[in-house]
Automatic annotation (TrEMBL):
This is Uncharacterized protein. It comes from the Eukaryota. It comes from Collybiopsis confluens. InterPro entries: LRR_dom_sf. The lineage of its organism: Eukaryota, Fungi, Dikarya, Basidiomycota, Agaricomycotina.
Length: 295
């Protein structure tokens, strides 16, 4: 196995079996989404050349300690669980460019205390719920690392904590957010409130949220009967027009070039048809619009 560079491991979710298989190899990519890899099994392998890792969990040591042994790693996708760090003292800066955490299992806020990610440009946080303090700890991690984030996908309840996190990353040019109807969580912002936050005000004194935004992916989920397709279509249209290259808006500013909208609700075609009508002039001039009722 010493010459093996790429491995797609779809066998037993046993870290010991994986470690035995790759021992002696200098892998560059490893897809082991079914495996929770313990620190003891990890230490039996040489992952110093690994550039991409897809794994279920890294357990038994803080994630920063794992990354310290993978100096070439640029892309990490981890589903959880992860181990919390005892302190917020990362070892050395990692080489990570892209990080996706799908925390269907336990993803403690303390796991981020061991991370130092100055080169990170793309971050994905995918979970319907998140543990207390998680978003704030992630924000502190990026601030400590002086990260200049370009792409953010954060599909948790859109509340004020998430809003403040997005506000702290003005360099973002591609944003993916998910918003549920108000009855899912008392703290969540409604889709209408979220769209209001994203709409650029005519008041020059107001701070623009994600001022460099070029691509926006919205996922809207109504779980009640409060859905009003024409009202929502109007709000979406106003938000897009406030950011796109229309009217006398200075072309020197970053402008929204593409909107991808996913919606799960009743009367979704009424919503989409109205959006198509309202944004038809923009689409004709090159604006990219993708509407999907089945995400």
């Amino acid at each position: 196995m010493s010459g093996m560079k790429h491995l797609d491991y779809k066998y037993e979710p046993d870290g010991a079996s994986l470690a035995a298989l790759v021992r002696g190899a200098t892998l560059q990519t490893l897809d082991a989404m079914t495996v929770n890899l313990s620190w003891s099994n990890f230490c039996q392998c040489d992952f110093s050349s690994l550039q991409e890792l897809i794994i279920s969990g890294l357990i038994g040591a803080p994630i920063g300690r794992f990354l310290d042994c993978m100096p070439s790693l640029e892309n990490l996708k981890i589903r959880g669980p992860m181990t919390a760090a005892e302190s917020d003292s990362p070892l050395r800066p990692s080489n990570l460019r892209h990080l996706t955490v799908s925390s269907e299992e336990d993803c403690p806020a303390g796991a981020w205390k061991s991370l130092w990610v100055p080169h990170l440009t793309s971050l994905g946080i995918r979970s319907r719920e998140y543990s207390e303090g998680l978003v704030e700890t992630i924000s502190s991690c990026l601030c400590r690392s002086k990260t200049v984030l370009k792409a953010l996908s954060i599909t948790v309840h859109f509340d004020n904590e998430v809003l403040n996190f997005i506000r702290s990353q003005p360099s973002i040019n591609e944003l993916t957010v998910r918003c549920y109807s108000k009855n899912v969580s008392e703290d969540a912002l409604s889709p209408e409130e979220m769209l209001s936050c994203l709409t650029i005000s005519q008041d020059p004194e107001k701070t623009v949220l994600v001022p460099n935004l070029e691509r926006l992916n919205l996922q809207i989920y109504y779980m009640d009967h409060s859905f009003q397709p024409l009202v929502l279509a109007r709000d979406i249209s106003e938000m897009v027009k406030s950011r796109a290259a229309v009217g006398d808006r200075p072309t020197s500013k970053a402008v929204l070039q593409a909107l991808s909208l996913g919606a799960l609700t009743e009367n979704v075609e009424d919503l989409f048809n109205e959006i198509r009508i309202l944004l038809a002039p923009l689409v004709a001039s090159g604006f990219q619009l993708l509407l999907d009722g089945g995400w």
